[in-house]
Specification:
InterPro entries: AB_hydrolase_1, AB_hydrolase_fold, Carboxylesterase_BioH, Epox_hydrolase-like
Number of strands: 8
Order of helices and strands: EEEHEHEHEHHHHHEHEHH
GO molecular function: hydrolase activity
Keywords: Hydrolase
Structural class: alpha/beta
Number of domains: 1
Strand order of the largest sheet: 1-2-4-3-5-6-7-8
Protein name: Alpha/beta hydrolase
Number of helices: 11
Pfam families: Abhydrolase_6
Largest sheet: 8 strands, mixed
CATH topology: Rossmann fold
CATH architecture: 3-Layer(aba) Sandwich
Length: 304
Amino acid sequence: MSTPPFLDLPDTARARRVPTPRGAFACLEAAPPAGVPVRGTALLVPGFTGGKEDFIALLDPLAQRGYRVAAVDQRGQYETPGGADDPAAYDRGTLVADLAAFGDALADGHAGVPVHLVGHSFGGLVARSAVLAAPGRYTSLVLMSTGPAAIQDSEAARLAMLEDALGSHTLGQVWDAMRAMDAEAGILPPSDPRVADYLRTRWLANTPAALLAAARQLRTEPDRTPDLAALIVGGLPALVLSGTRDYAWPVPWQAETARRLGVRHAVVDGAAHSPNAEAPEPTAKELADFWDGTARNADGRPPR
């Protein structure tokens, strides 16, 4: 579970709901300050049990670099309603279609602006599926703390336990049990009581069926690296970004994914599974530098 370092929005950002034909999606949006040219739009997709606030510390640094940024709660995640009690309503195709609709609504009035897609953890699996479903829709892809296929066995076993618990207990009961397990393991809650309260509120606001669907996808994800590699050969810029350690997909797995894709693996010092929240400044720099590098001069040459 990602923990944002703070909750107050910077001056460059706002919270809003974006209406689409597929429903309204809650997002945090930031725009470059006056005088800073817009270089592109970035769509940030959070991971399992996470939310748009996981990217809150990236908003201003990316806006200052000239990027319009939108971090979105996916269907059934925190402040975006689910509306269905069947996990099938949150399958991968649904989430990919949601992301496309959200991006289209966000792009209204910004035609021709490059759109960069960033997926964290489970959000990375969704983002990968999104570019595979519509190869020309996105300008680039960043897989952040995301592996090539299903998560490692130890985490898959924990997810199976969570699925069992969600089938017979309320979200409040599951939350209390998870916090008790953290306490036994010596894991302390956030020191900021506002952040601690936010984590509980976020968990309780999730749609249980959406949690079940995401957990099952994390346990059963196929390796689609060859499919993605074909897109990259065809010209899609991509980046694999991780911390120095990761409990879901070991960092060597992520490095191997980058090798198979033929792309760079950026490692953020001081970060684990959530570089966006644990080391936001160097993470923002890696992202903006990568996006800047995807630009082309009028004669087609990459910028120096």
